Amino acid sequence: MENHISKIPTQGVDIKTDTATWALPEGAIARFGEGTVFAIAFSPDRKCLVVGTAIGLWWYEVATMTPIALWETERGMISALDFSSNGKWLATGNADGIIKLWDAQCGTCVTRIRRPIQRYENGWVEYGIRKIIFSADNQHIAASRQGNGVICLWDVETGDLSDKLTPDPEIIVGSGRTPIPRPLCFSLDGHLLAGASPADPDGTADFISVWNLKNGKQIAALKGHTALVRALDFSPCGRFLASCDMYGILQEWDITTGNQVQVSSVYSEKSQVTLGSSPPVIPIYSPSGVLHAIGVSNTSITVWNVECKEKLNTFEHPENISHIHFSKSVQRDDKDFNLVFASKGISASNGSSKIHLWTLDNPESVNTIPMDSCEIETVTFSLYGQTLISGGLGFTTCWDVAKKRPQRQMRRRGTMVHSINISPTGNIRALGNIRNVLNVWDVETNETITTVTKHQDIVTAATFSPTGEHWASGDAEGKLYIWDGNGEPIPLCRHTDAIKSLAFSPDGNQLVSASRDKTAWVWDVASGQKIASLPLTQLDAELYLGDLSQKKRLMKIQRIRNEKGVATRTPFNTTHIAITFSPCGNIIAGGLPWEIRLWDAKTYDICLARLMPKECMRPFTLAFTPCGQYFASGSWWAGTDKVSIRLWDVANGENIATFLGHPTDVQCLAFSPDGTILASGGFDGVIYLWDLKPYLKDI
Asked: What confidence tens digit (pLDDT) does each residue in 323-348 have?
């Protein structure tokens, strides 16, 4: 795999450590985090471990566990991957339903296949590839999604669709929607293929289809599981198939008769595993055909010999296991049967996220790879800009901006971090919730400062005031509170639907709340009284800034509404609104579907409205530069390879610059104190730092 190193831009970069600068998008100066992990695979020679994440394909050298390459950053969102057994090819599938075949030695994409979007009668749309595997003879690639068990086969050499395997319509009765990847398995000779399909109307149980690939016929429909099937493996002779469902029930089948050989549940230490986590039991046959069961609990992995019900080894995992991948020998001699496997977990104590490597005969972890990845909900610079603090689902992390690396990371299990506050003395506090419980804690010590339980429903938005003296929170019912430093509430008049965004004015005297009920209200913090409502009604097309095509589209919508006699002119869909104040407090900015709107913070009149291009039609995060002359908007994903971040001139609404880096929703933005750097955090688990010096005046 030596050629992988040649794919990395090495000029001025330490390829062993400086991954924060690899394959950066134009305008970015650093990337923090490797992206949310979706798939893991070993190369056949076990010299490399490949990790598919939201931002691309990471290659690690197993001997040293150092990164050696980063591929496929143009789109990322790698949801499935597999190597051919000869090591020549690597197949990847992504969240858009695109399969790519790569030359594993030089990193060249040789085939690109797009699997059409699957639409169901219930309105659910299915895009991505969730499972992809090579046949043992390296002639075919099979891929599945989450849905109704349909499996597509492609010819490796030509990239042509060679077959589409659909379960017997008299057997399949499921709705097609399931929340887990559909397992697939080829027999060792490549003649048989097994996959799971829904067996009940609710999609809560599966049967297993087995096809003969020589004639494309379904030769077996194995019914017996009462839950979703999570893992499959053929015996080397191809006569037997082992399967495991989400409850840890392991079954072995005789393919020639369709009968169960054995059923057992003793290999799992959990009665049920979370749908997004690793299967509770993974069946694996040795080269001589001895069935093994890999039992996966929250923090341990146990290997069993099923034939004699013998526990071979137990691996204590230091973190909660979220992903697991095995590499087994294809030789037919059990003396060579020494599994190598990688497991990814998240520590409950310090928030670290690592991939561990193990071997069957060694209960000690061989090596680890740190992986910084979690959904980013908020980013904040320290007072002088040396540190960036991020918060997301379960984490708060402090990053050294100059060194481009994490300083420390703290875990808050199950907590969604909404807001970070830094006091004048440099103390850092975070605000987050677990369902309806709201917490304030010290980021450096991870100690809880205040807990409030006033909300009856899930907290959907929360923020500190600029001084940290107060904080505000809103829930899914529309209830809204302002809290003082002791956790005492000032209840406000409630909205009629979930609170989606909250923002304090710079002096902390006012609060703006935006709700799914299509209203945005301004509050006096001291009295808790509502001061005003921000106008959200749709404007006439000629009053918007924006390109002509967008104005024509709006005019068409308005004409149709007028013809239908629609009285209330609301924006396209105001169920989500992002709100923020300018640094001097004279402007309130709102990100609405299809537009950005600025209001005068004294009169609450609209002072600017800008229609957004189609590719960034949901600008649901906003931030002003410290000088207040510019603001940035980040959008949610709208079908593009990358999601745009746009820099705007406040005075005239001109789009000054556009940055493209995140492959999915941009969720938060923050400017450095001197205004020269913009930090963006995404649903992809990554933070980008963007250089603004070429675009802003007087910097």
From this structure: 676 665 444 455 545 555 555 554 43
Q: Where in the chain is the domain with CATH 2.130.10.10?
A: 78-223, 534-664
Rounded to 5 degrees, what are φ and ψ at 226?
-105, 15
In this structure, CATH architecture of domain 78-223: 7 Propeller (2.130)
Compute φ and ψ for 43, nearest 5 degrees.
-70, 155
Higher pLDDT, 5 or 684: 684
φ, ψ at 365 (rounded to 5°): -60, 130
Q: What is the C-alpha separation between 260 and 222, in angstroms, rounded?
A: 8
pLDDT of residue 299: 75
| HSE of 95, CA atoms in CB hemisphere, 13 A | 21
Cβ atoms 23, 85 nearer than 8 A: no
> How far is it, in rounded angstroms, from Cα 30 to Cα 22?
8
Phi and psi at 481, nearest 5°, equal -135, 150
- Contacts of residue 10, defined as CB under 8 A and 6 or more positions apart, other chains included, come to none
**pLDDT > 90: what percent of the chain?**
52
Which pLDDT does position 200 carry in this prediction? 62
For residue 238, CA distances in Å to 208, 241, 256, 257, 564 come to 15, 7, 10, 13, 63
Rounded to whole angstroms, the Cα distance separating 226 from 206 reads 7
Could you tell me if 177 and 165 are in contact, meaning their C-beta atoms sit under 8 angstroms apart? no
**Dmax (CA) of the chain:** 81
Other C-beta atoms lying within 10 Å of the C-beta of residue 588: 23
Spatial contact of 498 and 475, defined as CB atoms under 8 Å apart: yes
User: pLDDT at position 175, please?
Assistant: 46
Q: Decide if pLDDT at 243 tops 90.
A: yes
The first and second tokens of residue 14, run together, are 């330490």
What is 534-664's CATH topology?
A: Methylamine Dehydrogenase; Chain H (2.130.10)
Token pair of 309, please?
């019900």
598 or 314, higher pLDDT: 598
Q: Which helix (H) or strand (E) holds 450?
A: strand 448-452
Alpha carbon distances (Å) from 676 to 625, 694, 698: 9, 9, 10
Q: Residue 364 corresponds to which tokens in the numbers above?
A: 């000690």
Q: Is the pLDDT of residue 645 over 90?
A: yes
Higher pLDDT, 453 or 367: 453
Q: What predicted TM-score, i.e. pTM, was given to this entire model?
A: 0.90
Compute φ and ψ for 602, nearest 5 degrees.
-100, -45
Q: What is the DSSP letter of 545?
A: B
